[in-house]
Amino acid sequence: MRAVTWHGKRDVRVDTVPDPTIQDPTDVIVRITSTGICGSDLHLYEVLGPFLDEGDILGHEPMGVVEEVGAGVTELRAGDRVVIPFNVSCGTCFMCSAGLHSQCETSQVREQGMGAALFGYTKLYGQVPGGQAEYLRVPFGNTLPIKVPDGPPDDRFVYLSDVLPTAWQAVAYADVAPGCSLVVLGLGPIGDMATRIAQHRGVEQVIGVDLVPARLDRARKHGVQVVDLREHGKDLGEVVRELTGGRGADAVIDAVGMEAHGSPMGKIAHQLVGYLPDAVAAPLMKTAGTDRLAALYSAIDLVRRGGTISLSGVYGGTADPLPMLTMFDKQIQLRMGQANVLRWVPDILPLLDDADVLGTQDFATHRLPLAAAPQAYATFQKKEDGMVKVLLQP
Q1: For residue 120, how many other CB atoms are within 10 A of its CB?
Q2: CA-CA distance, 237 to 246, in Å (whole number)?
Q3: What is the separation, in whole angstroms, between the first and last Cα of the chain?
Q4: DSSP string of 236-268, one letter each residue
Q5: Closest Cα partner for 388 from 210, 225, 227?
Q6: Which of 79, 214, 363, 374 has the most CB atoms at less than 10 Å from its CB?
Q7: What is the value of pTM for the model shown?
């Protein structure tokens, strides 16, 4: 089969690799019909190379059609249409039963000290072959795949793999009451969808912050009050406080993460690690790694006293300096973590009907063949051509 594979920093290729096979009685093989490129995939493209091997298959936002089922699979059959959550979660352990699928005790990557395995996302998360491919082996076939109806286009459902539950959790963790204010930092796919979900859930004032014109325009068209970071990079706090009665936002979602714009020292640290051999870089990142923290620092500044910060942007540093005095004095509540996909699916699925209240069917800005993945990664990383969300269609 053909698959998107990692070959080094800013070097992804579409290679011919062996087809996946049934390895466990509860495995299923899925023929992929749509698969997204996620903003967190850019961390693999740019920063997390020390935790990848050449030829690793990328991607964690797939959906498709079941081609083959293992002897122990009773809930699916060939021909069923399914979305695959990015968490590799069993659905039956203590953590999954508690709604913490990203901490699944069956697939936890204990040798790395990490939570549940993820499709297509480095040795830290199990080095499981990903979904930017023609076919994908999916474990836990009775409990992990999300069965969806035939008929509507893939765009209606594919975001159940990551974008929708990640954005839903970000808003849920922000815990904003109807009538209150929410700032979303970063209007990429997760931030954009978070603004839509917040509006749907009754948040009265939704403010989106970004510096990419196409992203600002896109959010503005959906009724979001936008702030252009190019104009207000130095006075963002004052602008947000002015918009929120002088107090600051009731909650802030950081949908940016470890590679935030405006973090020069963190950027230099990332670049220096990129020049080190993996055997040196990997342990250094696990013990002394730092992130580009401009977005998180902004969130701490923008949130009102006693407010909540919800982190959905991926962070990977282990030695990040945080302003603990300010955080303690402001009595900030901080919630974070990989999205627990299956926890939120029952809330989201009813919204994916013909009314399409979250705008999933026009959410993708680019639909491309799998062969176009290398150029798509480059364009997405540079935020060019109005690219916000890419769907690859094998």
Answers
A1: 29
A2: 10
A3: 10
A4: HHHHHHHHTTTS-EEEEEE---TB-TT-HHHHH
A5: 210
A6: 363
A7: 0.91
